[in-house]
Design a protein that fits this description.
The protein is mostly helical. Among the domains are: about 60 residues; about 40 residues, E3-binding domain (Dihydrolipoamide Transferase, Irregular). Helices cover about 85% and strands about 0% of the residues. The chain is built from 3 helices and no strands. The radius of gyration is 62 Å and the shape is elongated. The N and C termini lie far apart (about 165 Å). The relative contact order is 0.03. The model has no long low-confidence stretch (mean pLDDT about 80).
């Protein structure tokens, strides 16, 4: 009989051979897969290059067409703008004499209006001053009459008139020498 330790050694050697075979097969599969991936990548790169080249070419053509159209549109706008500037210039030249005449007329009318306003203001000021002087004279006379009426009232009548809100200038005095008495003030309040 073969001892157990020798059997294990023999079994392990067989396992090493099997692992070697598997490793070799994995290497071959990997090498084959790498070759296939390289071929696919090479083909894809070629196709991407062709598509990119075609797209670049189409973009170039479109850019050229757009550039031409922009150039034509720009030229058209420049021509139109030039014509508009010419028309505005001509219109301005045509309007210049009329504008000057209208300005002169407006200045003349404005001068006349200003002079008229100044004359009216002076007349109004004079009238207001005259009216103010008359009012001052009348107010002075009214004050004198009121003071005279108050001086003709007795002190008791003056106090009562103030309490009752009676205007002494409207009260007729019945006392000696036309003096206003307390009775006169009470009578004016009731009447």
């Amino acid at each position: 009989m073969v001892p157990e330790s020798k059997k294990n050694k023999k079994g392990l050697g067989g396992l090493g051979d099997t692992l070697g075979n598997v490793t070799e097969q994995v290497g071959e599969v990997t090498e084959g897969a790498t070759d296939q991936v390289g071929e696919v990548a090479e083909g894809a790169t070629g196709q991407v290059g062709e598509v990119a080249g075609s797209a670049t070419e189409q973009v170039g053509e479109a850019t050229g067409q757009v550039g031409e159209q922009v150039g034509e549109a720009t030229q058209g706008l420049q021509d139109t703008a030039g014509q508009a500037v010419d028309q505005v210039g001509q219109t301005a030249e045509d309007l210049a004499p009329a504008t000057e005449e209208a300005t002169e007329q407006a200045q003349g009318a404005l001068g006349q209006a200003a002079q008229g306003a100044q004359d009216t203001a002076q007349q109004t000021t004079q009238q207001v001053q005259g009216t103010a002087q008359q009012a001052a004279q009348q107010t002075g006379q009214g004050q004198e009459a009121a003071e005279q009426q108050q001086s003709q009232a007795t002190s008791g009548a003056s106090q009562k008139a103030e309490e009752l809100g009676v205007d002494l200038s409207e009260v007729e005095g019945m006392g000696p020498d036309g003096r206003i008495t307390l009775k006169d003030v009470k009578g004016a309040k009731q009447g």
